[in-house]
Amino acid sequence: MSDTHAQTVAFVRDTMLPEQPPPASEAGVIKWMRENLFKGWFNSLLTIVSLYFIYKIVSGAYPWFANGIWTTSSLAECREMLGGMTGACFSVLTERWNQLLFGFQYPSDAYWRPTLAFFGLILALVPVLYPKAARQLLIVTGLYPFVAYWLIWGGTLLIPLMVLAGLIAGYFAFKQFERQSFAMGLLAGAVATIVVIWAGGIIPASMPDVLALEAVQSRNLGGFMLNMILGTVCVSLSLPFGILLALGRQSSMPIIKWICVIFIEFIRGVPLITLLFVANVVLAYFFPPGSNIDLVLRVIIMITMFASAYIAEVIRGGLAALPRGQYEAADSLGLDYAQAMRLIILPQALKISIPGIVNVAVGLFKDTTLVSVISMFDLVGMIRGPILASTEWNGVYWELWGFAVFVFFIVCFSISKYSQWLERQLATDHR
Amino acid sequence: MSTITDPPAGSFRLSMLINDTRYRSYTFQFIALVLLIVAFAYLGLNLIANLQAAGLNISYQFLGEPAGYDINQTLIPYTSQSTHWQASLVGVLNTLLVALLGCLMATVIGVFVGVMRLSNNWLVRQLMSIYVEIFRNVPVLIWILIIMAIFIAVLPQPRDFRGEDAEASMVLGAFAFTGRGFYSPAPIFGPGSGVVVAVFLASIAGIFAFRNYAKKALYDRGQLIPTLWPSIAIFFIPVILAYFVMGRPITLDYPSLQGFNFQGGIFMRNSLIALWFALSIYTAAFIAENVRAGILAVSKGQTEAAASLGLRPRRIMNLVVLPQALRVIIPPLISQYLNLTKNSSLAIAVGYMDLTGTLGGITLNQTGRAIEAIFLLMLFYLAISLAISAIMNVYNNAVRLKER
């Protein structure tokens, strides 16, 4: 059978044909363009409209950037150099660079201090942001707030050192009494901190010149530095408060629960600007008569309250998203409330909440520009006030606003990209 | 069980307040309450002492006094002789006006961008994500000020419209875009125009009735009645007929250049437009993300199941995808509306007279009643946000998956 068949067939191919390349329209760039840019008439129309739009923007913006002038000292000179051509006067940025960064009242021979504090911030953030970084760096993070305070506000180093000593004493007291109960430990820690700071307060008062930098008043802070300070301080402070508020809202004790609910809903219901008005004109009435709390501190208090309410809601979401079994498992291990929260619940709940917390942090950082409304000179305040109102630079809108957009975009965009990265790093679920 | 673990009654010791879980929560709550009362008492005493030292008191008398300042954009009659209370009302209405306009425009842009981000056109997708990222990551205050800068620096002043060879001209002879704001024709309702308006309202009701009828016909008899063209016909034809039958009672009042400014027509001040546009494009970036997430949340199987039942693409979108996507989209959308309303308080940065500008701005500065004014201001925003969350709860309950 088989060989008869072999004889009737005239030709049998005994090798495979070589693979042909796909048709030109079905491969590489052309295929991609056909599928993604010119699939049907409507799609092609969209592409053409978008291309035209991009062309308009680029052709408008390119000469403006390319002819940009970086070296003049006033708008009139800049216009003269351009001689009627389209072009940007970026010289406003170079000439007012220090004002944009530090405000117009910060002593100019001390610019190195906030600059150093800024680079210190990066160093201090490394162990917090990268879980794999060396743990020893956390010491830098712990010391950073005290050094940064000293660098930015000046005065003697002994004041932040005293506060640090108080906190260390509080920590040891807490460790000592924690074995009895967590609440006891907290109480002992707080008492020890206050006692040490209060008692040790005599030392810096008696020696105001030890390791002293030139003191800078809070009202002299300004520029982008002020945005950074407000953003960093308020986010860091609002995290612990937010956690406490979230736990309080989840609590089974009705009074504590309702205190937290009312606080959170009240703060979330009003715009930040009314809270800043409170900081500006009302808050002083609630301090003891004669006390003189400066505006930056009052603003920090209000923004921290604002941010903690939002962070509390985010963390509450994380707490609610944890499976009930985690709470029951912690109980069945015999852990008390503080242990269960610290060891089982919060680490997981905080991990779930990271994207939300980062959203709040980005939103808060953007909202720090609102302080310009209560006449503080942050980046926006500097641009609106001293720079645009000056005779040299009256009318340089696009360069300045473009700079502000650029700075905020860089910071906020990188924070959100970081949070997406961290989310992937921490993903341990088994989906 | 409980008889074993319960200690015998009557053996209460003081240490049980801390160590016994049954009493401990009372102890903690009691401590919290005492601390709260102490804190409030401390703040209250400070307040009283400070007010006495400054010779002030808490009183709302100032609301009845003449305000003495002018407001350049009002929806209700207002003069500088009106009271602070009326000035606040003007502010409330202006807040609501910009919030309403902003929500509408933000929704339109946001839905458009959100849908376009899912387009199968690569270029459009990229452009839309650039839009979203840029507007989300820059403070809204900067956007408001940038749009205001466009008015100040780019748009022509009304005087540029003057003369034979004017530097600027009106669009279609009816709209003028100037640095002071936008002018557009205003309708004038002559005698008999009530009939036209009534016919217009009736035809809108008619559209709904017709759609209900079509739905009923579909569900009861399986009869498919086209709705789009009849709806359009019902919308336009009766109104146009009534308009001509009544002898064209509604005319347009065109803005015209008188001296150095435009007169007549509807005038929208530059501060309102700047605030409105900035809030809209900023919030739209967030809404776009919500819309995209909502559409992506509907699983592909739903679309495929609908297609296998023989539904056409438009019906799949209307009957299957959208109802499920809306369940995901609406709650964050409403909270974006709330954010927009709260952000509208930034009006003060461009001088738009919303509630923050009148009650929290000029009234506060003139009367010095900081505590009272800011308290009322907060109360207003709080009321709005509580009302919106109430609406949201009702909605959430209505669309919740009915599980059994």
What does this structure look like?
The complex is a heterodimer of chains A (431) and B (404). Chain A has 431 residues and is mostly helical. Chain A has helices at 2-8, 28-36, 40-66, 75-82, 91-95, 97-102, 112-129, 138-153, 158-178, 182-200, 202-206, 223-250, 254-269, 272-282, 295-321, 324-332, 337-367, 379-387, 397-426; strands at 155-156, 212-213. Chain A has a two-stranded antiparallel ribbon. The longest helix of chain A is centred in the last third of the chain and has 31 residues, at 337-367. The two termini of chain A are 58 Å apart. In chain B, helix 6 packs across helix 9 (270-297) and helix 9 crosses helix 11 (313-343). In chain B, a hairpin with a 2-residue loop joins strand 1 (176-178) and strand 2. Chain B has three domains: 2-51, no CATH class; 84-185 and 254-399, MetI-like fold, CATH 1.10.3720.10; 186-253, no CATH class. With 404 residues, chain B is mostly helical. The chains are: A mainly alpha (431), B mainly alpha (404).
Write the layout of secondary structure elements.
The complex is a heterodimer of chains A (431) and B (404).
Chain A lengths: L1 H7 L19 H9 L3 H27 L8 H8 L8 H5 L1 H6 L9 H18 L8 H16 L1 E2 L1 H21 L3 H19 L1 H5 L5 E2 L9 H28 L3 H16 L2 H11 L12 H27 L2 H9 L4 H31 L11 H9 L9 H30 L5
Antiparallel strand pairs in A: 1-2
Chain B lengths: L1 H4 L10 H4 L1 H34 L29 H33 L5 H15 L3 H14 L22 E3 L2 E4 L1 E4 L3 H29 L6 H18 L4 E4 L2 E3 L2 E3 L2 E4 H28 L2 H9 L4 H31 L11 H13 L2 H30 L5
Antiparallel strand pairs in B: 1-2, 2-7, 3-4, 5-6
Distance between the termini of chain A: 58 Å
Query: In CATH terms, what is the fold-level topology of the domain at 221-380 in chain A?
Result: MetI-like fold
What is the level 1 CATH name of the largest domain in chain B?
Mainly Alpha
**Per the principal axes of the C-alpha atoms, what is the gross shape of chain B?**
globular
The CATH superfamily name of the domain at 221-380 in chain A is: MetI-like
Q: Compute the number of strand runs of chain A.
A: 2
In terms of DSSP E residues, the strand content of chain A is under 5%
- CATH homologous superfamily heading of the largest domain in chain B: MetI-like
- The order of strands across the largest sheet of chain A is 1-2
Task: Tell me the radius of gyration of chain A.
Answer: 30 Å
Secondary-structure element pattern of chain B, one letter each: HHHHHHEEEHHEEEEHHHHH
Portion of residues in helices of chain B? 55-70%
Structurally, the number of domains of chain B stands at: 3
